[in-house]
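#struct-queue
[09:14] JT: dropping the first one here, sequence first, then the structure tokens:
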Amino acid sequence: MEKQKSNLDKRSEESKSWRHLYKTALWQKGRAWHLRNNPLCVFCGEKGLAVPATVVDHIKPHKGDRTLFFDQKNWQSLCAPCHDGFKQMLEKNEWRPEIGLDGWPVENDSHCIEAVS
């Protein structure tokens, strides 16, 4: 539990300068518009599942870059489990294993892993 807390503290320190962007009217309106027009989770959709999205994710982490933050081409709709789990893994590891419909990684004979673009 201590490790998790220190990771949260680190994230808070790193993001203090740009967390306010999520509270702006421009973001709130853009987020609502995006979810209305893209209501399903992109990652779940890739697996043939229709799961409602609740998060507008930045495909490329913005790290406080306002242009990237508000660039709608950099947005994707995700469900909270995909955003809080799978997307975080992608950002940390920069690779994406194939995931089966049961939610577990698929074992295959290939040593190739789909790269994150």
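[09:21] JT: and here's the second one, same format:
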Amino acid sequence: MPKQKKTPSFEDLLDQLEQTVEKMESDQLPLQEALETYQEGIALSQRLNSMLDEAEQKIEFLSKQKDPDTEPASQKEGLA
């Protein structure tokens, strides 16, 4: 059975980005490798931003839903 690739979590990607930044800050990279590392950092940053946008949309959606268990009693009884 072929191995399925696990989608990296937000935290895993953030760790990768932090490592990329540390690598860039080391001042030990040749120009070409620095450019490639920079591109990797940009790609990671875009993926992280996308994941944050998705999470924000889910939170907004859930916040807009009416949940009878979380409504104040005055609204449940029609007293509002």
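[09:30] RK: nice, looked through the second one.
[09:31] RK: The chain has three helices and no strands.
[09:31] JT: good to know. Residues 31-64 form the longest helix (34 residues).
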